[in-house]
Amino acid sequence: MRRASAIIGIGQTEFAKDIGRPERTIALEAIRAALEDAGVAPTEVDGLVRFNMETTSEVEIARNLGIPNLRFFAEVGYGGGAGCAVVGLAAMAIVTGRARVVVCWRARNRGSGGRPWAGTGMRVGGDYQWSAPFGLVRPVDQIAMLARRHMHEYGTTSEHLGSVAVAFRGHAARNPQALLRTPISLEDHQASRMVAEPLRKLDCCLETDGAVALVVTSAERARDARGRPALILAASQGTGPEHVVMTAYHAARPLETPSTWAARDLFAAAGVSPSDVAVAQFYDAFTPLVLMSLEEYGFCKRGEAGPFSQAGSLAWPDGELPCNTSGGGLSEAYVHGMNLVAEGVRQIRGGSTSQVAEAELCLVTSGAGVPTSSLLLARA
Amino acid sequence: MSAALRPLPLPDLDTAPFWTAAARGELSMQSCAVCRGLRFPPRPMCPRCGSLESFWKPVSGRGTVWSYVVCHPPLLPAFADRTPYPLVLGGPGEGPALRKGGGISECPSDRLRSGLPVQVWFEDAGEGVWLPQWRPLEPATAISGP
């Protein structure tokens, strides 16, 4: 699988609080842009991979684009955990010969469409029957429970979390596509209101409308692409024992989230180590997920990510590991992490607004706290 | 708080015994009939030995706070009028797999901490549903003086 496939096109709509167009329309806009970026005609597309939360079906995409023969279509579950997994699945289809050009996309009107938790029913079945009746309903509450425990075990502080938000906003300030571009200070973070103690408003990602699409093909076909490709060095998915989606509190070590498992397989498949990685895009629905991911993907020992971040390590250009260089979900847009994959491609191509010099390898991760996935992208 | 508006559990074949026990004031956990391992959340198969046979076993309801969060608006209407409210993940001492969520009562916020010993109690949530909640397990009263 190593370097056998590549992302050759990225496309996106504008990001907005209320984009004013349906999810299927913005999906098509982003896909059309990605195909133009790749220099690939829609008639060449023969595979589509989507998030299972996506509201637009593959056949609807195909008949809009004029795809004559869709020979591979699949979907990945678990919300934001699917971002890198859809690309990994597309790469598998290409390497095994099931498809030649596969498009992955996420279109989500999460800014104007309301908060999913607000639609919690009067009766809650499944795993959420153990949390929702008690008032543990919002993703921010579910993650705050892990963040508080991380603080208890390792001495992580709210200021450590704030340093993540400050660094990513600094990157967003340089990115004209980002929704929030006014720099913030640690004092601004500390002054922002509590949402789920210990998490504040500035620990939370944005609520965004927007779509992002990617074009995946073989490394061989990538040589004819319009732009520079981002080779897929490795991809992984993972989850551990006794997992419960978003409320995985019942395993022996709940702070060992699915990221631990995805990370282990990713680096083994790639044959590289975290010290080889120049830049990273971590799934950042909430700031503590970034600190936990830094530890789970092996950039810091357990408990050391807070001080690592507060020392400025995540901030472009001088940090040891610039992260979320577009501003990420916290400040660019929250498109279920697909914008993180697009930024990973820009870093490899040399087109980020916070470009890391000699970015040979970029790590991209997907939803933490859910069965997740990750990618290592590499220069050709 | 309007209990009628709060989301209530929708028990299924596997989870109903938990809620039935809760309604009679008992914290009960699913145990494998073969290897005797406890498991939570309830499910048809024992992840250790593969048995589909299980029984329900009352547990002490004493444990410690594993973590907690204090919820501020915006919240579901049912919870909005008691904000900010603390939610606790505590569990009976029988094992980490039995960590359970719940609110905590009779606990001033400056006392709330990970590791706080707690005891389960059951709140009438209406419609025949009783929710296991937590309260601090008071330390034994010190007897001082002659």
List the helices and strands and how they pair.
The complex is a heterodimer of chains A (380) and B (146).
Chain A: E1 5-12, H1 23-38, E2 47-51, H2 58-65, E3 72-76, H3 83-95, E4 101-109, E5 123-124, H4 139-154, H5 158-172, H6 186-191, E6 194-197, E7 199-200, E8 209-218, H7 219-222, E9 230-238, H8 258-270, E10 279-281, H9 287-296, H10 305-310, H11 328-331, H12 338-349, E11 361-365, E12 372-379
Parallel strand pairs in A: 2-3, 2-4, 10-11
Antiparallel strand pairs in A: 1-8, 1-9, 4-8, 6-7, 9-12, 11-12
Helix pairs in contact in A: 1-2, 5-9
Chain B: E1 8-9, H1 16-23, E2 28-32, E3 38-39, E4 54-58, E5 62-71, H2 77-80, E6 85-92, E7 100-103, E8 117-126, E9 129-136
Antiparallel strand pairs in B: 2-3, 2-4, 5-6, 5-8, 6-7, 8-9
Helix content of chain B: under 10%
Classify the helix fraction of chain A into a percent range. Answer: 25-40%
Q: Count the helices of chain B. How many?
A: 2
For the biggest sheet of chain A, the summary is: 9 strands, mixed
Number of domains of chain B: 1
pLDDT < 50 runs, ≥5 residues of chain A = none
Biggest interface, CB < 8 A: A-B, 43 and 43 residues
| Succession of helices and strands of chain A | EHEHEHEEHHHEEEHEHEHHHHEE
Structural class of chain A: alpha/beta
Globally, the shape of chain A reads globular
Strand content of chain A: 15-25%
Radius of gyration of chain B: 17 Å
Mean pLDDT of chain A: 97
Given the structure, what is the number of helices of chain A?
Answer: 12
Oligomeric state of this protein: heterodimer
Backbone CA Rg of chain A = 19 Å
Give the tags.
heterodimer, A: 380 residues, alpha/beta, Peroxisomal Thiolase, Chain A, domain 1, 9-stranded mixed sheet, two-stranded antiparallel sheet, 12 helices, 32% helix, globular, B: 146 residues, mainly beta, 5-stranded antiparallel sheet, 3-stranded antiparallel sheet, 2 helices, 9 strands, disordered C terminus
Describe what you observe in this structure.
- The complex is a heterodimer of chains A (380) and B (146).
- Chain A starts with a strand and ends with a strand.
- Chain A contains twelve helices and twelve strands.
- Helices cover 32% and strands 18% of the residues of chain A.
- In chain A, the strands form two sheets. A nine-stranded mixed β-sheet of chain A has the order 3-2-4-8-1-9-12-11-10. In chain A, strands 6-7 form a two-stranded antiparallel ribbon.
- Chain A is of the alpha/beta class.
- With 146 residues, chain B is mainly beta.
- Chain B has one domain (12-136).
- Chain B has helices spanning 16-23, 77-80; strands at 8-9, 28-32, 38-39, 54-58, 62-71, 85-92, 100-103, 117-126, 129-136.
- In chain B, strand 2 and strand 3 form a beta hairpin.
- In chain B, 35% of the residues are buried.
- Residues 140-146 of chain B have low confidence and may be disordered.
- Chains A and B meet through strand 5, helix 4 and strand 6 of A and strand 1, strand 5, strand 6, strand 7 and strand 9 of B.
